[in-house]
Structures are given as structure tokens and as C-alpha cells.
Write a structure and sequence with these properties.
It is a single chain. This protein is α+β, with helices and mostly antiparallel strands and 498 residues long. The protein folds into 3 domains: 4-42 and 153-228 and 335-375, FAD/NAD(P)-binding domain (3-Layer(bba) Sandwich), CATH 3.50.50; 61-149 and 230-330, D-Amino Acid Oxidase, subunit A, domain 2 (D-Amino Acid Oxidase, Chain A, domain 2, 2-Layer Sandwich), CATH 3.30.9.10; 399-494, Alpha-glycerophosphate oxidase, cap domain (Helicase, Ruva Protein, domain 3, Orthogonal Bundle). It contains 13 helices and 20 strands. The protein has helices spanning 14-25, 62-78, 99-111, 152-165, 213-220, 289-300, 361-372, 399-409, 415-425, 428-432, 452-461, 467-473, 483-494, and strands at 4-10, 30-33, 49-50, 83-91, 122-125, 141-150, 169-171, 174-182, 185-192, 197-207, 229-240, 248-252, 258-264, 268-272, 276-277, 314-323, 337-342, 350-355, 445-447, 450-451. Strands 3, 4, 5, 6, 11, 12, 13, 14, 15 and 16 form a 10-stranded mixed sheet that branches. Strands 1, 2, 7, 8, 9, 10, 17 and 18 form an 8-stranded mixed sheet that branches. Strand 1 (4-10), helix 1 (14-25) and strand 2 (30-33) form a beta-alpha-beta unit. Helix 1 packs parallel to helix 4 (152-165) and helix 1 crosses helix 7 (361-372). The mean pLDDT is 93.
Length: 498
């Protein structure tokens, strides 16, 4: 007889991988399948923020905001290589929200979450502060507050790596074709990229399929959807760097939406996001010309130098599978997660995951396992708070020291190269470069500062299969490699020498 897993998870986004890591660390046996690459959909298409969600206060989402604010600093401590503090500048627009209301919201933001590391809000005079230089002269006052940045797709991969190190069987490029309750267990059929099929058995099934959560429930499990999701598309554009400082902007728009302009990958600015209801296939989501124009117009209303569609160097879009709470506007739909447990007496439990934010993925995982615990009595206690992710075992403010140590051990590395490696891998960068004594030891050069040594590491340790996995999810080097270089990388990966 085949092995019986405690939990089978469908979906390799942040929720699925977060649950897998937490469960494996509690002594449970876990199987996870993902139809494409890890973080292949929603989890790599965020605005890359660990934040409380300042605008969620307007919708009275106080529990969500408090939980998210607390989690900011938890995640900073878990993964200081891929997450770091960022200051946000909110110019006061006299025609929109009054200054007192904004200041009240920021007061709550500063105090709801027990802030210990991040500095609080301050008021800026844009006529003298460097943050005012890119802005039109109409804006003279701004509020500056703290949130954090995260490399979203790397957060997913690091959770998967830790889960695998604790025994989880992770299968990428593996689609779940169906699941049925048989003799008190789930029998889950999966299909690999080569067409091979396998049936695994598990005591519990977690549906963390993101935008496909309802489809999997109806088509994969054969049940009516226990809840509805509201698919909301968020699109982003990337343009050459718009300002010299390292702070981000949050711009209010007359339609009630906000748009961020964020320093990105050293030489660029990330602008987003949109909120539009989406009813098509989430596998084929893409930004529209209208969304691009909207984002350009939104930031141009604040900047001395307008942003035009011709400036855009890259775009991405994703679908957020939000719980349908009946909100009339997409931006008003709750960002909170909703967990629906289907556990009839004597039947194997099914847990469906709706919604959620990257910021609160760890708490979602704890909540999910709390619901499953009565059916899995051997489960251990919660443990992830304070436990670092792979490569994150250094102080929150110790990034510069890690870069210096890596360059001291590997003096052939340029400063920018060393910084990128530490940002991606933290202390694991030393493992990646173990035994390399000069630039030649890095192997074939694919472009920018990407070499065969790193690509081999990503293939062997992080489930990378294609150039897109490396250039857009394990890194953002796709912004720097030419089409020809990307094709050469893809060919090398397909035919990698043994």
C-alpha cells in the first residue's frame, strides 16, 4: 500500500506553501502539488508589500489591519534578506481626504500593531524635503509612515524549501486531476508534466488553489462551491526610475483608489495597482491598455515629469481570489481570508482557502491547522513565529554586514552582484558559492550578473525548470537580459550538462 499522508495540499502559492511548512514543522507528513511553478500566479503578481493596509481602515477592517501590522515585524525577523523596511510618502491632496482624517488613520496605523522596529509617522514639508522634488508645486505637505517590502515569489519558494527540508513531498508541474473520499481518506490523483499519473492518499485535503479554488472544488472534488470568490485583477507597470531617493509614494486618486510608486530593482519604479473585477481564465490574465493609461495618469497628476505608456518597460497582472462579501466595488471587497471546513462525521476533512494577503499568510496557515487539528490529533504546537526562513538567520538590520562578509570571502564579486545574491539567498549565498575562488568558477555567463553556478543552484534546490522561473520569479533579472540571452538560458536549462 502507498504511504498515507496527513495532509495533501493543492496549490503552490504562498498559502499552500505556508501551510505545508507549518504542518511539516508540527510533525505531519505533507504532500503538495502545483500545476505550474511555485508562485506561478497570484503570489508573484502582488505589489510586493508587507503592510497593514492603510486604506482598509476606511472599510473598518480593524482585525485584519491589526493582524497585518503585527505580522510586518514578524516577517522582517523571519526573512531579513527578502523583506526590509520602507518609508512611504503620502502627499496631502486638499481636494480629497482631509488632513485630520489621514492623520487619525496614521495614528491608528502606528499604534494598532505594537510597533517595535519600524519608525512612526512624521509630517513633511515638501518645499524643503527631498521627497518634494519630483512632485508638482501644488503639494506642500505630506505624511511619511512605515511599511515593508517583500520579494513575494521568493517568500513562497523559501517556505517551500523549508517545508521540503522538514519532509514535505513537493511536486511542481503536477496537476491535481481529481480527489475523492474513499474509506475515510482522500484519494488524490495527480498528473505530471510528462503525462504520468499517480494516486496519493491523505487524511485531510487542503484546497489552496488560489484563483482556481472554486473550479477545483466543483471539477476536482465534485462539490458545489461552499463559498463564492470574487476575482479581482491587479495590474502593475514598471518604468525607468522616476526619483533619486529610496522612499515610496502613495498617491490618492479622485476615484477613491490609491496608487503606489515604489523604487524597484535599483534602476526602475514600480507603479500599481488597479482593482478590476475579472471573469475570464486566470491563466491568461494581462494588463489592458486602459489600465496602463490609468496608472500613468494617476501618478502623472502628482509628478512634474509625466509618465507615459511609451516609458513602460515591463508589466504584470494577477488575479486576487477574494472572498465575495457582496461589496459593490472591487476595491471595497474584503482582503481578509476565509476558511471553509467541510468535515462530515466519519469523512476525511476538506479545507477550502478563500482570499488572504501575503502579509498574513503565516497567520492563515496557523488558522488552517487549528481547524484541522481535531482530525489530526498528532499535530504539534504552532512554531513558525520567530523561526527564520532559509537564509534569514541574521539580524534584521544586518544586511550590509552580510554583503561585506560575502565580498570578503569572494572578492571577485562586484558590489551590486554581492548585494543581489544576499537579497535573494541571505546566508545561503555562501552555500551557493562554496568552493568558487574566482569569476571563472561561476561558469557560463548568461547576461547581467547571472551565471551557470546560480542557475544550477536554482534548479537543484528551488525547483526552477525554465528561464521564466529564474528571470521572473526567483529573480527579476528578466528586466536586464535580452530576449536572445533569455532564450540561450532556457536552452541551457533544457539541456543542462550532468
Amino acid at each position: 500500500m502507498s504511504k498515507i499522508f496527513d495532509i495533501a495540499i493543492v496549490g503552490g502559492g504562498v498559502n499552500g506553501c505556508g501551510i505545508a511548512r507549518d504542518a511539516a514543522g508540527r510533525g505531519l507528513s505533507v504532500f503538495l502539488c502545483e500545476q505550474q511553478d511555485l508562485a506561478g500566479a497570484t503570489s508573484s503578481a502582488s505589489t510586493k508589500l508587507i503592510h497593514g493596509g492603510l486604506r482598509y481602515l476606511e472599510y473598518y477592517e480593524f482585525r485584519l489591519v491589526r493582524e497585518a501590522l503585527i505580522e510586518r515585524e514578524v516577517l522582517l525577523g523571519m526573512a531579513p534578506h527578502i523583506a526590509w523596511p520602507m518609508r512611504f510618502v503620502l502627499p496631502h491632496h486638499k481636494g480629497l481626504r482631509p488632513a485630520w482624517l489621514i492623520r487619525l488613520g496614521l495614528f491608528l496605523y502606528d499604534h494598532l500593531g505594537g510597533r517595535k522596529i519600524l519608525p512612526g509617522t512624521r509630517t513633511l514639508d515638501l518645499r524643503s524635503d527631498a521627497a518634494g522634488a519630483p512632485l508638482i508645486d501644488d503639494f506642500v505637505k505630506a505624511f511619511e509612515y512605515s511599511d515593508c517590502w517583500v520579494e513575494d515569489s521568493r517568500l513562497v519558494v523559501l517556505n517551500a524549501m523549508d517545508a521540503a527540508a522538514r519532509g514535505t513531498d513537493i511536486r511542481t508541474r503536477t496537476r491535481c486531476t481529481g480527489a475523492r473520499r474513499i474509506d475515510g481518506l482522500w484519494e488524490v490523483t495527480v498528473e505530471g508534466a510528462d503525462g504520468s499519473r499517480e494516486t496519493i492518499r491523505a487524511k485531510a485535503l487542503v484546497n489552496a488553489a488560489g484563483p482556481w479554488v472554486s473550479r477545483f472544488l466543483t471539477e476536482g472534488v465534485g462539490q458545489n462551491a461552499a463559498a463564492r470568490i470574487r476575482m479581482v485583477k491587479g495590474s502593475h507597470i514598471v518604468v525607468p526610475r522616476l526619483f533619486d531617493h529610496d522612499r515610496a509614494y502613495i498617491f490618492q486618486n479622485s476615484d477613491g483608489r490609491i496608487v503606489f510608486a515604489i523604487p524597484y530593482e535599483r534602476d526602475f519604479t514600480l507603479i500599481g495597482t488597479t482593482d478590476q473585477d475579472f471573469r475570464d481564465d486566470p491563466a491568461h490574465v494581462a494588463i489592458t491598455e486602459e489600465e496602463t493609461a490609468y496608472l500613468c495618469a494617476a501618478v502623472s497628476a502628482y509628478l512634474k515629469k509625466p509618465v507615459t505608456p511609451e516609458m513602460v518597460v515591463w508589466t504584470y497582472a494577477g488575479v486576487r481570489p477574494l472572498y465575495d462579501d457582496g461589496a459593490s466595488k472591487a476595491q471595497a471587497a474584503t482582503r481578509d481570508y476565509v476558511l471553509k471546513l467541510d468535515a462530515p462525521e466519519g469523512a476525511a476533512p476538506l479545507l477550502n482557502i478563500f482570499g488572504g494577503k501575503i502579509t498574513t499568510y503565516r497567520k492563515l496557515a496557523e488558522s488552517a491547522l487549528a481547524l484541522l487539528k481535531p482530525r489530526l490529533p498528532g499535530m504539534g504546537r504552532p512554531w513558525t513565529e520567530g523561526a527564520t526562513l532559509p537564509g534569514g538567520d541574521f539580524p534584521v538590520l544586518g544586511f550590509a554586514d552580510q554583503v561585506a562578509a560575502l565580498r570578503a570571502a569572494h572578492p571577485y564579486l562586484a558590489e551590486t552582484h554581492a548585494r543581489r545574491l544576499v537579497r535573494a539567498y541571505g546566508t545561503k549565498a555562501a552555500e551557493l558559492l562554496d568552493g568558487v575562488t574566482d569569476a571563472a568558477g561561476l561558469g557560463i555567463h548568461f547576461g547581467a550578473d547571472l551565471y551557470a553556478r546560480e542557475v544550477a543552484y536554482l534548479m537543484d534546490r528551488e525547483w526552477a525548470v525554465s528561464a521564466a522561473d529564474v528571470l521572473w520569479r526567483r529573480s527579476k533579472l528578466g528586466l536586464r537580459l535580452t530576449k536572445e540571452q533569455a532564450e540561450a538560458l532556457d536552452g541551457w536549462m533544457r539541456n543542462r550538462p550532468s
